[in-house]
Design brief:
The complex is a heterodimer of chains A (398) and B (377). By secondary structure, chain A is an alpha+beta fold. In chain A, 48% of the residues lie in helices and 14% in strands. Chain A is built from 14 helices and 9 strands. In chain A, helix 6 packs antiparallel against helix 7 and helix 11 runs antiparallel to helix 13. Chain A starts with 6 loop residues before the first helix and ends in a 6-residue tail after the last helix. The mean pLDDT of chain A is 95. In chain B, the strands form 3 sheets. Chain B has a 4-stranded mixed beta sheet with strand order 1-4-5-8, covered by helices on one side. In chain B, strands 2-3-7-6 form a 4-stranded antiparallel beta sheet, with no helix packed on it. In chain B, strand 6 and strand 7 form a beta hairpin. Chain B has 11 helices and 10 strands. Chain B has 377 residues and is of the alpha+beta class. The mean pLDDT of chain B is 97. The two termini of chain B are 29 Å apart. Classes of the chains: A alpha+beta (398), B alpha+beta (377). Chains A and B meet through helix 9, helix 10, helix 11 and helix 14 of A and helix 7, strand 10, helix 8, helix 9 and helix 11 of B.
């Protein structure tokens, strides 16, 4: 066992640090209101931003949007530990560093796409030129994804899609839907689903905003009305989409903004050092210390699960259960962190970022709202527990 | 970064599990729990033959030359099986303390005997105040005739009733700093004036009251530096906390394994109870607690092995694992239902062990206070 980085890993970490310091706007990390593991306050989801665009392109040039991909597909050709180191640092600075295409779609294409699809999509994804949004849920389909109703019917070299998707996070600022559709209604639910890529610009795609409880436009409902896509946009084989989706969901669950937890925690610790009550700082009060220590401990555990998944991937082990553990543990920690921050900061936690009295740009106020989303997206906490119990511990379904 | 066990460590783990399953069945555990001695000489000897006692001692003291992490892996398996007896105080509290602070003469005298299984050691640290801070050490050792005379009461002393030697923490000088003036002594348990009374405890783990009534100790039995023994005590406690975590990880793992197996077999409403989400989610919570506990424990144990400062990681591990094991044990009981509430069932052995392990060397609040301090709060 060895819990420290190798020289090479350490050097890469330093390189990432230098890059962030050089390329990220100086006040970015202070001004950014992102709450770790939340879905509702990602700045890059709100509207297209030239700053984010430029930063992303620079990352793409270095192959860092896809650290672990082979160089021939535009990656940096490094390992998963390096990729984890990269994301740890990026999330610590709340930096926009990859999204659905780089972290979910691309890795899934790498595993299941044919060579033509890999050549068509992977280099563009790696350069940050194409962004995906997840078209999974439908108005009546949430946790039970296999019951989707959106239909795709073959027509010559095309598929024609009809249906409605919901919770399409950032669909309005992305290029393509990474979408599951029903292609064989006669087959059992899991065996009639295909995974496809749909260009947002296709005729018949209509995107309407849904405003989340933080007040941001992150979600969308998206309508597909006789939308035509070429068959080469089907990932892997027709009707095998469910299997690919399960793998894609694991990739999604591994995409944890681990450094964001540490950063936000450090800020709350700093607040507790500066805030005075009854002649002593909050950080001197035993109950506050106990609460903060409890969060520090759980952040440490989250980090350990995080490194564990990367370490396993580097050894070609499939971190299927670990992905669920990581997702479950960190999202629940997101809520605990928000609640503890609120308890420590009291009234100051309630303030949005607009007042001269605001602390931490109002992050805690928004984070307290945003942390609800973490336990719902990418498979609810209940679904994660089902996975751990059934796939991990072998408990029976019936 | 390398987060896996080595081949040798995997082998140690497996051989320990197989050996204990065969040689330390629950029938023996119960029998030893009911006895006053609380250990089996036969099993003790076999463990010594396997090289477990001296595992983490250098070869020149009759040990196996392996690391603290290796010892932690062994302790995890001992926790998995439950092995009543004085292994923990003898090796972790006594042996490692002598290894850390002993003179060459002391190491040569004590460690080979410990490694051969010929010496049982106990640590007399806590007193009636039942806490782990320096201020609570009231037992006095007064210099007299080239030696010391110890007077005071020690409480919650593990396995003192069968010990050959007692490591006694006493105050040799009064100053304003409670951490100053502490000295560590190696006391022959048969010394006149030393009396030991067995206490009946939750985990039936043979804790004792040890009274030192003018017990004479020679100068050569001072372990480490006179008056400056507290850093050694702190080091012992740090290793002890992490070693205890390793034991708890094993206990939590078996509680999970037992509960999952039961949930697969127990049928109610015409289906295994493990198919109900309520039970599945209990099991998922347990699995999460076991994994998290193992990761932080290994990290702290690895740091101690490497000689890297580990105050933060040790406190994190003990704070978390103490409470996680308790949660796992309770959920396991919930899954077992009424059968788990019987003496015949094994679950109560782990439930008892979990609470005793939480309390010893400080629980969640105690270690969170250390974490806060290490965070610079």
């Amino acid at each position: 066992m060895d819990f420290v980085f190798t020289e090479r890993e350490e050097a890469f970490r330093g390189e990432v640090e230098d890059f962030v310091e050089r390329e990220l706007p100086p006040d970015w990390v202070e001004k950014n209101i992102y709450w770790p593991a939340g879905y509702g306050t990602l700045a890059q989801f709100e509207e297209p931003s030239p700053q984010v665009e430029q930063f992303t392109r620079r990352l793409g040039e270095k192959g860092w949007l896809t650290v672990s991909w082979p160089k021939e597909y535009g990656g940096a050709g490094l390992g998963y530990i390096e990729q984890a180191i990269f994301h740890e640092r990026m999330s610590y600075y709340r930096a926009p560093a990859g999204e659905i295409a780089t972290r979910i779609g691309g890795p899934t294409i790498m595993l299941f796409g044919n060579e033509e699809m890999k050549k068509e999509w992977l280099p563009r994804i790696a350069r940050g030129e194409v962004r995906f949004w997840l078209a999974y849920s439908e108005p009546n389909v949430g946790s039970d994804l296999s019951s989707i109703q959106s239909r795709a019917i073959e027509d010559g070299d095309d598929l024609v899609i009809n249906g409605q998707k919901i919770w399409g996070t950032a669909a309005h600022v992305s290029h393509c839907a990474w979408m599951i559709v029903r292609t064989d209604p006669a087959a059992p639910p899991h065996k009639g689903i295909s995974l496809v890529i749909v260009d947002n610009a296709s005729p018949g795609v209509t995107i309407r905003p849904l405003i989340n409880i933080c007040g941001f436009h992150s979600f969308n409902e998206v309508f597909f009305d006789n939308v035509r896509i070429p068959k080469r946009n089907v990932v892997g084989e027709m009707n095998k989409g469910w299997h690919y989706l399960m793998v894609a969901l694991d990739f999604e669950r591994l995409a944890v903004p681990i450094g964001g937890f540490r950063r936000t925690f450090e800020e709350i610790v700093q607040f507790s050092r500066e805030a005075n009550q009854n002649g002593r700082t909050l950080s001197q009060q035993p109950l506050v210390r106990n609460k903060l220590a409890d969060i520090a401990i759980q952040i440490e555990i989250a980090y350990m699960i995080f490194w564990q998944t990367a370490w396993m991937l580097d050894r070609n082990l499939v971190p299927n259960i670990e992905a669920s553990l990581l997702k479950l543990f960190t999202t629940e920690l997101s809520q605990k962190l928000a609640n503890t921050a609120m308890q420590v900061m009291g009234h100051y936690g309630e303030l949005e970022g607009t007042s001269k009295w605001s602390s931490l740009c109002g992050r805690v106020c928004l984070g307290y709202l945003d942390c609800i989303s973490a336990l719902v997206g990418a498979g609810t906490s209940e679904i994660q527990r089902n996975i751990i119990a059934m796939r991990g511990l072998g408990l029976p379904a019936k | 970064m390398d987060l896996g066990l080595s081949e040798e460590q995997e082998m140690l783990k497996k051989s320990a599990r197989d050996f204990l399953q065969k040689e330390c069945p629950k029938r023996l555990v119960r029998q030893l729990d009911d006895s006053d001695e609380g250990y089996s000489i036969e099993l003790w000897r076999r463990m010594a033959e396997l090289g477990w006692m001296g595992l983490a001692f250098p070869e020149k003291y009759g040990g196996g030359g392996q690391s603290f992490l290796d010892l932690a892996i062994l302790l995890e398996e001992m926790g998995y099986n439950i092995v009543p007896g004085p292994f923990f105080p003898t090796i972790v509290l006594g042996g490692l303390a002598i290894l850390m602070a002993g003179s060459e003469k002391q190491k040569t005298e004590f460690l080979p005997r410990v490694a051969r299984g010929e010496m049982i050691i106990s640590l007399a640290l806590t007193e009636p105040s039942a806490s782990y801070d320096a201020a609570s050490i009231k037992t006095k050792a007064i210099a007299r005739d080239g030696g010391y005379v110890i007077k005071g009461t020690k409480l919650f002393v593990l396995n003192a009733n069968i010990a050959d030697y007692v490591v006694c923490i006493a105050r040799t000088r009064e100053t304003t700093d409670p951490e100053d003036g502490i000295t560590v002594f190696l006391v022959d348990a048969r010394s006149p004036g030393l009396t030991c009374t067995l206490l009946k405890t939750l985990a039936r783990d043979k804790q004792c009251e040890v009274i030192f009534d003018d017990v004479t100790v020679s100068e050569k039995n001072v372990l480490g530096r006179k008056d400056e023994g507290w850093p050694l005590v702190r080091d012992i406690l740090q290793k002890a906390a992490v070693a205890k975590c390793a034991e708890m990880v094993g206990g939590a793992q078996v509680a999970l394994d037992m509960a999952v197996n039961y949930a697969k077999e127990r049928v109610q409403f015409g289906r295994p109870i493990g198919s109900f989400q309520a039970i599945q989610h209990y099991c998922a919570n347990m699995a999460m607690d076991v994994s998290g506990s193992r990761f932080v424990t290994y990290k702290a144990a690895w740091k101690l092995s490497e000689g890297i400062p580990a105050a933060f990681d040790a406190a994190i591990a003990k704070a978390w694992v103490s409470e996680a094991y308790g949660r796992v044990a309770l959920l396991a009981h919930q899954i077992f239902g009424a059968i788990g509430f019987t003496m015949d069932h094994d679950m109560h052995l782990y439930y008892r062990q979990a609470k005793a392990a939480e309390i010893i060397f400080g629980g969640g609040d105690f270690h969170r206070a250390i974490v806060a301090q290490e965070l610079g709060l």
